[in-house]
């Protein structure tokens, strides 16, 4: 069992499974880059698409060496185009080494994360709701086609082969989509919708796969839903004592099989994952509140200030005090 301080020190072996449409490419035009990337919970919070009439957005983001994007999911399809650098992407329980020129597809609802980026790992994240490409259309055939991917019954391959005969055309169209949205010239919304539809259609033709046979789909969805319940539990209770047995019971697995599944899904042990989440929340408090470091340590579940400082430095490469000092504007 892990207490408040145990989660600040321990490295116990633990794992996860698959579920959003994303593309990652590298070497696009030099558009404005989001600066100051750190613990990138902001990236999945920003996937909330406020404009119901045009549920689409593009984010251009740069990671530094200590940054990461926590394991998460959303109902939107997502396209990520990476310009440069290296990182490890975990998509549906599989690790991928991402490098310049790669394209990754993440299916709707698919658990995914970004870890271990090199310096200046830069990418575009294109996010859109299924309704943008016809999920709410009156064309029943088209609705069934789109919904089979948005509800997880079918999936796209996570990494199209760059040597594939269609890849160059696919990549060129992605570039056009980004430029249309960035320039926002007259009628760009219609152009964006048309390009997204085209990319989705090509994905159906060239990069579709059966996720699971019909007789296995129910069990797969149930397993994915249980792991998502665990993520929600961690978000709410990360500052409290969490035992391996409690976590395993949420996903209806034995502790042994839970450890293997969690490690497979996330690339991290359960303790590493919870500690990473705690550091993420601590950084938000350091940046956005006047709470003392001792108070923040207590808020995230570390009773020992020394344990908190050690944990924070391990993840961020600097002490909590140094980060807060660096964030203060010069006098």
From TrEMBL:
Q: Which SMART domains match?
A: HTH_ARAC
Quote the InterPro entries the UniProt record gives. AraC-bd (IPR003313), Homeodomain-like_sf (IPR009057), HTH-like (IPR037923), HTH_AraC (IPR018060), RmlC-like_jellyroll (IPR014710)
Would the keyword Cell division turn up in this protein's UniProt record?
Answer: no
Question: Is ATP-binding among this UniProt entry's keywords?
Answer: no
Q: Which GO terms describe its molecular function?
A: DNA-binding transcription factor activity; sequence-specific DNA binding
Q: Secretion signal: which residues?
A: none
Domain HTH araC/xylS-type, first and last residues per copy: 228-326
Give the record's keywords alphabetically.
Answer: DNA-binding, Transcription, Transcription regulation
Give the source's domain of life in one word. Answer: Bacteria
Q: What is this protein called?
A: AraC family transcriptional regulator
PANTHER family found in the cross-reference section = ARAC-FAMILY TRANSCRIPTIONAL REGULATOR (PTHR43280), HTH-TYPE TRANSCRIPTIONAL ACTIVATOR RHAS (PTHR43280:SF28)
């Amino acid at each position: 069992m892990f207490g408040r301080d145990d989660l600040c020190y321990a490295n116990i072996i633990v794992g996860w499974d698959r579920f959003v449409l994303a593309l990652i490419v590298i070497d696009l035009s030099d558009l404005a880059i989001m600066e100051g990337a750190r613990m990138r919970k902001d990236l999945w919070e920003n996937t909330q698409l406020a404009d119901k009439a045009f549920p689409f957005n593009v984010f251009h983001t740069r990671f530094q060496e200590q940054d990461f994007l926590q394991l998460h999911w959303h109902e939107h399809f997502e396209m990520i185009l990476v310009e440069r650098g290296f990182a490890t992407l975990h998509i549906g329980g599989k690790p991928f080494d991402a490098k310049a020129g790669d394209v990754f597809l993440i299916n709707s609802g698919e658990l995914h994360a970004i870890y271990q980026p090199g310096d200046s790992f830069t990418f575009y994240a294109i996010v859109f709701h299924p309704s943008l490409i016809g999920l709410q259309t009156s064309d029943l055939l088209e609705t069934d086609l789109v919904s089979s991917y948005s509800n997880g019954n079918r999936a796209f391959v996570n990494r199209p082969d760059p040597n594939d005969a269609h890849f160059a055309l696919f990549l060129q169209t992605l570039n056009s989509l980004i430029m249309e949205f960035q320039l926002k010239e007259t009628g760009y919304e219609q152009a964006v919708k048309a390009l997204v539809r085209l990319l989705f259609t090509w994905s159906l033709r060239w990069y579709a796969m059966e996720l699971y046979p019909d007789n296995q789909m129910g069990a797969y969805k149930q397993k994915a839903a249980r792991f998502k319940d665990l993520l929600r539990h961690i978000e709410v209770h990360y500052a409290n004592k969490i035992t391996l047995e409690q976590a395993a019971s949420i996903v209806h697995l034995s502790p042994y099989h839970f450890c293997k599944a969690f490690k497979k899904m996330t690339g991290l042990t359960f303790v590493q994952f919870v500690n990473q989440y705690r550091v993420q929340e601590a950084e938000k408090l350091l940046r956005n509140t006047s709470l003392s470091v001792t108070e923040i340590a207590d808020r995230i579940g570390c009773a020992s200030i020394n344990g908190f400082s050690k944990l924070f430095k391990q993840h961020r490469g600097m002490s909590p005090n140094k980060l807060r000092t660096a964030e203060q504007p010069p006098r």
